[in-house]
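Hello support,

Our group uses your service weekly, and this is the first time we've seen a run hang past the timeout. The protein is Protein YciF. I'm not sure whether the cause is the sequence or the server load. Input pasted verbatim:
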Amino acid sequence: MAQRKTVEDLFVHLLSDIYSAEKQLTKALAKLSRAASDPQLSDAFKTHLEETQGQVERIDRVVETSDIRLKRMKCVAMEGLIEEGQELIDEIEKGPVLDAGLVAAAQKVEHYEIAAYGSLCALGKQLGFAEGVKLLKETLEEEKATDLKLTEFAERAGNEKAMQEKGTKEKAGRT
Ligand SMILES: [Fe+2]
Ligand SMILES: [Fe+2]
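Update from on-call engineer: The timeout came from a worker crash unrelated to the input. Re-ran successfully.
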């Protein structure tokens, strides 16, 4: 039978889930960085990898300041999102098209994280975990900034392609 759970149980559950997600991501971001051919995109993944390592440590601090204990669990959603990214790496040869795919896969990840940290901030506030909420907000801002940076890559890639096509058409028009 279903057990009655408290808001604190839910907070612990969601925090344990994102803890697993962040840990999986440290490995996945290294892969994305290696798979990217645009050096700036590769660097952006590397930078977010370092941030992600900091986010894992930040969760440890949330646990300490909120006096809770994490559950051992696996974030299956993140496992699936990472698998989707891996499929792209397996199916598309290295180059601008794969780069665009990597950006799309990474943005799905960031949106998952933004949703998770947003919920955790709201629940933490209800529970009076002021210090924990401050820490979680720092991570939330990092995830949002990463998402914006990825949007810039997505748009830039689109513009470059349009410019190339325009160039080709102009050339074709001349001959
Ligand atoms: Fe993260
Ligand atoms: Fe992230």
